[in-house]
# Entry
Amino acid sequence: MRDVAQVQGPHTEQRRHPAMARRVSIFLLLLCGFLSAPSGAAAAGNVNVAALQVALRAGGYYSGTVDGMNGAGTRAGVRSLERHAGLPVDGVAGPAVRRALGRLGRHRLGSRPLHQGDVGWDVSALQFRLAWRGFPSGTFDGGFGPHLDAAVRRFQRWAGIGVDGVAGPATLSSLRRHAIPASPLRLARPISAPIGDGFGPRGNRFHTGLDFLAPSGTAVRAAGNGTVVFDGYNDGYGKLVVIRNAIGVSTWYAHLSRIGVRRGEPVSTGSLVGRVGMTGDATGPHLHFEVRLRGATVNPLTAIG
# Structure
């Protein structure tokens, strides 16, 4: 059974020879079975399309977001690769295209245990699936480095399976079995402001929260009752407040210009947490807001809807 992504335009098959059309139809049926995913995963895109996008980006054939969506840019990237490699230009990422992609086109996810140092299509797919399960590992690049090792271990711990940093059968099965996590707790909006970047893929990385666009100094308020467990500076987050809320949920308030609470302090919904800023890795003033469930990042819109 093949795991390659099918990136054909919607009407191309009608122009094929009937025997070829039958083969493509059978291939698509097998592919659909292989790519079946847990409930709610449709919004997360397809891990094989994401792996294809990673490989195409590495070769300079695709510059869009690694989102697992088979859009026009991905199809154009496949055709560009086919022309460059001297292959028939049909926009289908079949075996010949996979070979032309080199190391990033090899290995179906699940065909081997994955460890640090591995490179391949399966590593890209693992990075993408882990990110949507709440454990992003930095850049989607198809390389199993220290960041991916740490993400695998965090997921293993979260899922209650053996923690060894190896993405073997037990880990991959658990990733397939677990649905994309959502917040079990309803929360208030931390600020009255429009949303810029949302939760999900952004370029070749994964954005783990919502960016609320507001001027510097705008009040940021607690989204729920809880206790402050962190207040201070944290690398790319800049000035950050983390509040432990309830039933495993915590809320994160980043890039603040000023922090208005202290660690250990109890807060209630609507309490002043701090002020909007652009500290840390920020190109303009905004509030980066995250919701985590037992350490897994979840879409904040599942909490504040």
Summary: Confidence is low (pLDDT under 50) at residues 1-41.
